[in-house]
Description:
By secondary structure, the chain is α/β, with parallel strands linked by helices. The strands form 5 sheets. Strands 3-11-4-10-9-5-8-6-7 form a 9-stranded mixed β-sheet. Helix 15 (432-441) links the parallel strand 9 and strand 10. The longest helix is centred in the first third of the chain and has 33 residues, at 223-255. The protein starts with 5 loop residues before the first helix and ends in a 13-residue tail after the last helix. 35% of the residues are buried. Residues 315-473 form the Helicase ATP-binding domain.
Amino acid sequence: MELPDLDEVLNSTLLSLDSPTPLFPIKRSSDSYSMGQVDLFPEESISEIKFQFDLKTGMPTSFSEVSVSNLHQNSINSTSFQRKAFRRGTKFHRGSTQNQPFHITTGSTYNLSEQKNEEEKEKEKEKEKEKEKQSIEDQTKYIKSLLTGVGLLNEIPNFDSSKYKQEQEQEQEQEQEKKIISKEETKEGQEKKQEIESQSKEEEQSGYLDILKSFDLNEFENGEEKKEKEQEQEQEQEQEETNNEEHQKEKEQTNSKGNEEKNKIATTNLKKKPPQKAKKWVKIDNSSVKDFYHLIPNLALKFPFELDNFQKRAVLHLEKGHNVFVAAHTSAGKTVVGEYAIALALKNCTRCIYTSPLKALSNQKYVEFRKKFGNKNVGIITGDVSIQSDANILIVTTEILRSMIYKGADLIKEIEFIIFDEIHYLNDQDRGVVWEECLVLVPSHIKLIMLSATVENYLEVSEWIARVKDKTVYVVRTLKRPVPLEHHLYFNDEMFKVVDRDRHFLDKEYSKATQLKREKEQDSKNKYGGRGRGRGGGRGFNKRNFSKGKGYWNRLIKKLSSLNLLPVIIFSFSKKKCEQIPKYLGQDFTTKYQKNKIKTFFNKSLERIPLVDRDLPQINKTRMLLMRGIAVHHSGMLPIVKEITEMCFSKGYVKILFATETFAIGVNVPARSVVFNGYRKFDGFQMRDLTPGEYTQSSGRSGRRGLDSVGTVIIACDDDRLPWANELNHLILGKETSLSSKFKLTYLMTLNLIRIEELKVEDMIKRSFSEFYGQIQIPTKRKRLIELKFNYQNLKEIRCIYGQPDIEDFYYLNNQISDISEKIESVFLNSQFLLKLLSPGRVLSISYKGIHGIFGVVLKKNGKNQYLVLIIKPNQNGDLEEEVVSEKKNSSNKNNSNKKKNNKKKNNSKNIPDIEIEIITIAISQVSMISDLKINLPKQLKNVKKQNFKKLNTSNSKDLNLVVNQIYKYSINPKKKSAQIKKLNIDDLDFEDYYYDRDHYVKEFEKLKCHNCPKKDEHYYLYKERDQIISEVEELTFDISDESLKLKPNLEKMLLVLKELNYINEDNIIQLKGRVACEIISARGLMATELIFKNVFPKMSIEEILSALSCLIFEEKVRDMNELPNNLVVVKNKLLEIANEIDDIQAKYEVDNNEKGSVTDSLKFGMMEVVYEWAKGTQFIDLMEITDVLEGSIVRCIMRINELCKNVKNAARVIGNLELYHKMEEGMKLIKRDIVFAGSLYYD
């Protein structure tokens, strides 16, 4: 049987195994099953000219063009920007949805050059020809200015450059041909040939190399130098001649070896190429920095302190233009690396972007950078603020950076560095996807500085970024804390150090705490008559929040003050606890001087808000606490109050600060000690324990560098409870946080990628961190595919002696029987009657050595799921029943004497037909049928073993013959399967079907001619090998295709939703609604777009529109919500109607909503009346009587509504709706007032 062509067998496969591996950039394919269109390993290189100079005279002697890595390319010398820059203005830094992103020709995640129309390509070719036709005189002037400017030549003599060019080209071509002929057959010659070919290709690309060819540089050399060169050339020629002679001798020897070696070489043609060294995507730098100041004598930024070693290593890589990943503990000094990158950008006259996850951190960096680099050089862009947007140093939120890239902001062209601070925020459930988008889409000419806390899988994250950007990432890491930490338990008014500064768990100290707990419990029993106070009597943490009273907190603060551990940050993972605990404290921690300072600063800060808002309850409460040196900080506070608190704490006026964990991430202000009021938090989905990484992040705020020798961390325990030792060990000394991808598909991302057409959505998924582990295996899988095709072509043909081979059916049926047997086995294993069914004496049918329908009897259990069985073996053809039938035919033709003998055989049960018996061990999967027949086994069979079976077989045992005869009779005429199955009493609906199916396959299997074929085993294994190759090829083909992406099914469903809603057409081309949705980046884009196109807004007043937009923004749950006015009820019902329509379409295509629920569930109506009243002019203090939502949450919601109004206004401009455009402008004016939009203290 001839082997079919592998390409025909895999007609669904689009990968050609002979084709070379596709490289960057991506080629768009119209086929949805396109495989391997993306390669994360593009070759990025540029060329530069290197001169060789004479050491004596300083004159150039020769030159060569060398390929170098594109590491030093920045926004000054980059030639990858093909779109002309826009004029300075709003579009300069924010971009427009009508723009295309700047695309990079090398190392980028996408490229337009292969997707352009033919007309554009022809225009580019014409431009290149015009460049090549530039006058040689201009080029010689350029070379002259180049060389004279360097100081190598004072004058360049006049000459006819065209003649020199022709002569030099002819001479060089002749020399190259001679060298190629002489060295072509040697290894060295082949390597040099490759160098010459690469140089020639590079020379064609460079414009000014033609002029350098025309120079006869030998004219500027002295005679002695010429002689030395001639001698060197003669020596090289002699060496080449000797090498050629040796190579010819080797060639003659190899020719005499015969054709065997040629065949071997042919089979190993895949290994002809020399192995290339795998590129190191990540390099950990632990090198010495003793020569730091020698390598960088003039630092771009000088620091008033000596840099740590990890900081010096990072600075060295920044000077070299590398991408750097810095992993260090909190307060270790990671910001120094970012500051040096900013200084380097200012030195290079380029721009730098700093992005952080929280606005509070961005505001703090804005103040710090202004002080260090000057007010004119620093700007900030957030959703509601834009200050000096054309500054060289820009602080932006990650969402703004993503919008800049999608909208092709011209600012991106001038960026050299982007600093991603707190990059471990990739782990954030909601916003981690934004960080991944930015890291993937950032043009590769931009250098990345990634600052992270200590994470477990920092190497994997670095390798992912390196592969996506096609640039090596240099990892600089330190585990050393500038201020070591000591961890204590506070229990029963005493402190117990459980972990020292060297991170050793102190069992003795923990034992003292447990001993104190026992004594306290004993005293409680004596006092209360044997009834203990503690519930459960355990030592574990109270899983609820700590319930500590007024006396507890006063004693704790007094203890901290006596130990000189103030200022202290008390982390409580509940806003209510942060507000409640300060009420218990009665101490005063400020002096009169500090009180005056606080009062003056507080009153001056409030001058930016109206007089009415200065008497808000939260402001009065904060004022009273600050005067005593106490403060509160959480997200529910007014922005201006939070800023006052942060600044007072940084100046040392606040001694006790109650805060949530956002303070640890967003504000870089350490304290002397840190106290944890609990270790459980609500993460938006459930209550859970703190991870070791979260504990490390918050505890890292203890210990001030240069002020404290050690930082103190305290876990405040209840009076009757202690944490378990293993809980403490895991919390304090556990593994670092492991970053995981939170990448998810959104409609905004999908529409933006469809709009720009530079990067397919599938390609974005491939570059995400979630697909990283699968994508890095694609090159090896492609190699494996090539090997499989080579193995497939070398398979032997299956030539059947019968002419009509059944080997395919033989192999297929055998696999079917095996699969069904496994299903039956699983039913048996879960059956309660398994032991009864397979008890000793049960007659059954099994499969053994590839033969089905062998009958036997169970002797006993022989291990787990294994049984010892006596079987009657079939004949050589694997057919037992034929032997029985032939025996019947022979008996009918015999005489009477023979009949008498047969009767004796039946009566004595001794001389049955010649049948071999054997005792074997079987697994449950080998059982093909269990009969209802059960035989009484003799004693000798009950205790038999496989070792003494021969003795049993040779003995002429009547009992053995009786057992064999009963099995024999049953095998001739077995009962129907239905009768057997009913007696088994197995309650499984599919069990009977399994039995019938296997019986059917066994009957078909026994009809095949392959049973009588002497080459059955050989052909079976040949076909098995062929089938395994095909199945592996299909599996690998699927793995490297887009269909294997985890998010691909959901993407196809989302595209169907967008098509039905008319956001894109059938060809996946974006429509008007899709372009409008791209403008909505502040809320659910589909919902806002549907409101616009269904003409909902024209029917509403401006106040009602703003109230409706609040439902798309607000995310908190409101317990007690007042009844809405009638007009707002109408608005609410309209929103629910549109949301239900979208949900119905999504449910129709089964779209996964990324655990956020439906659009209807996402609408929150708790702020409708508040926003409505605010737009009508109601004072902020009166809003607090309408709702119980915290002041800070109200301000944040209204500010986001203002940002959403900007998006809707841009959308109205796109569709030309002037009425909606003016309504949005007027709405922004109505809400943008008073305390909600008070200027930040950081911006002064």
